[in-house]
Amino acid sequence: KGNAMGQYEMLYDALYLSLKNLSAYQPYENDELLWPTWVGNVIDISYPPLDEFFVSWRPLSKKVIIIFTDEPGQSFLFPKSMIGKSYNTKDTITQKKIIKMLSTIEGLQVYAFTDLGSKSGTSGWLPIISQSPGKWSPLTDSVDDMTDHLSSVAFDSLCN
Asked: How far is Cα 18 from Cα 14, in angstroms, rounded to an integer?
């Protein structure tokens, strides 16, 4: 979950933090990442707090991540080593880095429910989903459609 302001969906960051202890590729292994405070303290908190964001994956568990968003992938984490050298948070956690992390993980399924505008491109979710045995589905207002899609995810990922 990101901050209270809806336009700052830190989902690339959440995905990165969820993959961090599974992936052999660690783009920021020796650098502390933090929320920038120069954007008017808009992104200085998260739930859970950044220093407590840790996913404890059991070794033999089925690993599934499901993303719901109407936004392209965004990152707001910032390397501490770059303070004073740059203010660009867009280069920290990128689609390419997440794809490289996923390429080192076996048995993880990532599913994304997004609008069409967030599906493809350099910040889209489909290239990320394509790296795992997951699936992209349209995010809709239809309870029946979403229930069908979620039932399919549950069956595909947990029952097989």
From this structure: 6
Q: Which amino acid is at 142?
A: S
What mean pLDDT is predicted for residues 47-76? 88
Helix count (H) and strand count (E) of the chain?
Answer: 4, 5
Cβ atoms of 105 and 58 within 8 Å: the answer is no
**What pLDDT was estimated at residue 38?**
59
**Which residues make beta-bridge pairs with 79?**
33
User: 11: which residues sit within 8 A by CB, 6+ positions away?
Assistant: 2, 67, 69, 71, 73, 74
Give per-residue pLDDT as tens, 112-122: 999 999 999 99
Our measurement of the distance from residue 134's CA atom to the centroid of its chain's CA atoms, rounded to an integer in Å, reads 14
Q: Where are the alpha helices (DSSP H) in 20-114?
A: 95-102
Tokens representing 126?
A: 């489909």
Question: For residue 63, what are its two tokens?
Answer: 């690993």
Q: What is the pLDDT of residues 23-44, one digit of tens each?
A: 999 999 888 898 876 554 555 5
**CA 116 – CA 140 distance, rounded (Å):** 10
Query: Which tokens go with 95?
Result: 């689609």
Amino acid (one-letter) located at 91? D
Provide CB contacts within 8 A for 147, sequence distance 6+.
none
